Fold this protein.
Amino acid sequence: MRTETIKIYSFDELSEEAKENALKYQRENWHYYWGYEAIKSLEAFAKLIGLKINNYQIDWLNPQASYFKYDDTNINKDFYLHAETELTGYAMDYVILRAWNETKSINETLNRFLWNCCADYEEQLTDESIEEYLDHNDYEFTEDGTIY
């Protein structure tokens, strides 16, 4: 039998090289943490105005590669959504409401939704955001920055 002892570090205790390794790993394995909530906001909006979303493909970091297939036969283009309307309570509610009220265009509303989600995701991928996530969730690491 063999017993080994390893040192465990918080993110702040890591060397700069180990921090870079930890950040790189997290960034490569990250996903858009608010994606589910964003879709729920969009679905609530669609239901409210009578839009039927049949299919979609979203690349949260590349809105141009995303698409929606929908049936807008039964939408009410005159429908005004008050600013205080909560679709789900998530921040994208207000992006969607504002875009719809300003344009009454489904394509423009979807476009603004996607670009705002992209900006939110890009913010999550910054070193500062990842460091905050690792720190707040008490992640621990080996000396080289590997999650323990």
